[in-house]
Specification:
The chain has 173 residues and is an alpha/beta fold. It has a single domain, classed as UDP N-Acetylglucosamine Acyltransferase, domain 1 (3 Solenoid). 29% of the residues lie in helices and 23% in strands. The protein is built from four helices and 16 strands. A seven-stranded mixed sheet has the order 3-6-9-12-14-15-16. Strands 1-4-7-10-13 form a five-stranded parallel sheet. Strands 2-5-8-11 form a four-stranded parallel sheet, with no helix packed on it. Strand 14 and strand 15 form a beta hairpin. The chain is globular.
Amino acid sequence: MQYLKSDIKRKKQILMGEGYQVSTFRTLVSDGTSANFLYRATQFLMKYRLSPIALITLWLNRVINGCVIGAQAMFDKGFVIMHPVGVVINSKVRGGIDITVESGVVIGDEKGKAPLLGNNIFIGAGAKIIGGIAIGDNVKIGANAVVVKDVPSNVTVVGIPARIINKSQEKKC
């Protein structure tokens, strides 16, 4: 629960960046905030070895928000789920500061290895990040991209399979 306040503060900043005059109340009742709250509650309960109750918060997140975030998935402060429906995040996933997730995102493991996400990452709707890969800092992952290889910092990736797009180069990831 220690990061929930920073998650909500960051979500408010994101919403205000879209030109809205946003109150704290509007942020609290916006799409995805309850998913963030239940995820952080699950983390808190797991930390204090209250896994039976944590299973209830996982179930509530699935029923209320339509998303599944593994009980042991770890994200630092500033984790924001904009639209929770269809979001699936494996328990082995680790993420840094300021990660934004849109609807339908899957972050999963392959052969027991899950992605490691850096800081300041935006993951577009429907994107898939699979396997024991590393995503660098300041990365944008486009909608419906399928990322199965490491992504360096400071890039945008799009497509299936995901590739880096810059004005001067393209490189498959």
